[in-house]
Amino acid sequence: MAEEIRYAREFTGGDDRAAAVSVWNVHYNYHRPHSGAADLRPLITAPGGWHQPPTLLHLDIRNFCEEVEFWREVARQLAAAGMVVYLGARDLARGRAAARELSTEGDVRFMPLDVADQSQVDAAARAIEAEWGRLDVLVNNAGIGGTRPAVEETTADDFTEVMDVNMLGAVRTTHAFLPLLHKAQRPRIVNVSSGRGSFTVDDDPERMESRLQGLVYPVSKAALNMLTYQYARALPGFRINAVDPGFTATALNNHTGTSTPAQSAATIVRLALAIEGPSGRLHDSTGQVGW
Ligand SMILES: NC(=O)c1ccc[n+]([C@@H]2O[C@H](COP(=O)([O-])OP(=O)(O)OC[C@H]3O[C@@H](n4cnc5c(N)ncnc54)[C@H](OP(=O)(O)O)[C@@H]3O)[C@@H](O)[C@H]2O)c1
Fold first, then answer.
1. Is 183 a known active-site residue?
2. What pLDDT digit, counting tens, does each position of 192-201 carry?
3. 217 tagged catalytic
């Protein structure tokens, strides 16, 4: 975390900073009183200059209830940094348990949230609005792999559920939270994508993604990448980026991934914290990646 805070300081050059996560959606805000300050003090400036603890919203999260998952690490780092973290989870029991467990790291709250259900997304936005009146950062993390049939076996129906979560889920949350993000000083959205959705990565023979086949998941992430790009173009006052967290051992790949949770969390946390920098780009642990 110290490294991320240091990075955020160098990257942003100071001032307020805010972050939030969806399936992770978060909002929180930091204020650094002057350059070189020993720590970042949480601050939310409401109309009238009134200060509140930072807030973050996160949607979903099986990972919080399992052993070493990178989302746990992201939430841990954001909460430890002083954000109020709203964990959005569609599984009520696991979501509550995760929020309770992570509350030792900071202010972590549970938010019922299925990103495939517009009414739940809207209710989450209303709850944040009632409590905070704004959202500083939204992190769209929910993602599924689907049944992954061979390319020639894939039918249109195989896309339905995956697109509903991986692409439309991000549209639902982004649309619902935009009015609150507009009220933030430096609104940010981090869409958790994948190298599999990047033409550059998939076309690079040095990358393991180039040896994988499949239609549904890569197409859903390519769509998420284009969403990211188009939202960023339409909203120049926002920082809206996509992240490839790297091949990480999670349920998504039957725990075969090779990156550590800390490595995978780092890029997401970096983009969630930084108030300045590129928008409408895909990032991984090495920096910007081609679409
Ligand atoms: N692991 C990797 O190597 C890797 C690489 C690149 C990108 N990613 C991306 O990273 C993100 C997280 O994946 P992961 O690897 O951590 O996989 P994961 O362990 O399967 O986590 C995916 C999470 O998404 C949640 N989710 C699915 N549908 C949802 C819905 N309708 N509403 C709310 N939450 C929903 C799941 O909740 P439930 O527990 O309720 O199912 C689960 O917590 C995904 O977007 C994935 O595409 C992962």
1. no
2. 999 999 999 9
3. yes
